[in-house]
User: Fold this.
Amino acid sequence: MTDDTPDIGVLADDLEDLKAIVQGFASQLEHNTKRVDRLVSDGPSEGGQDNDGAGAKDKPKTPPFILWLPTDKYAAELTALAAWVRDLLAPTYLGEVSSSSPWCASWWEHPAAVARLHAVWLAWQELTNPETCGLTGPSVWHRDHLDPMLSQLRASDGPFAGCMTNPDRTQHTVLPTPPVAPLPAASVTT
Assistant:
């Protein structure tokens, strides 16, 4: 006659495996619940209808274009952006200042620089967030956002063309805006 009684060590291992599986399910449930809650809170208004009773139209979410924000919102975004530029971008990615790679310590006075830096910062926020980016988010951010932005921003003919090209000599010049002629009256149709 054989004894079918399992070894206590095997039972303990099986119990630990079952605990890990249950914990994994609980974690996944919590993650899915948060996603559903976020979808519900971002979804259409009550009953899927607008205030006029018509069906809700999905408006595409668009990031704010910083240069068009109202003054108070612009100031708040610029303050947050400045901290990111100071604490992450400048010490990690800017490298040496030279005639082929200028920089401006007063970058916020160049609208084209503000717009480009803000756009790359928004992308950084999304692509470094584990809930939205996946494992390749940071790589995508470097390839698709940071590198092209830095190439344009620090080009010898970019927004900082009249600014610092030597780290020992601070220089700041906001380039003049090119003139734009008004549209001839005959070209305007109503």
Summary: The first helix runs from residue 8 to 42. The helical segments are 8-42, 71-94, 111-127, 130-133, 137-153.
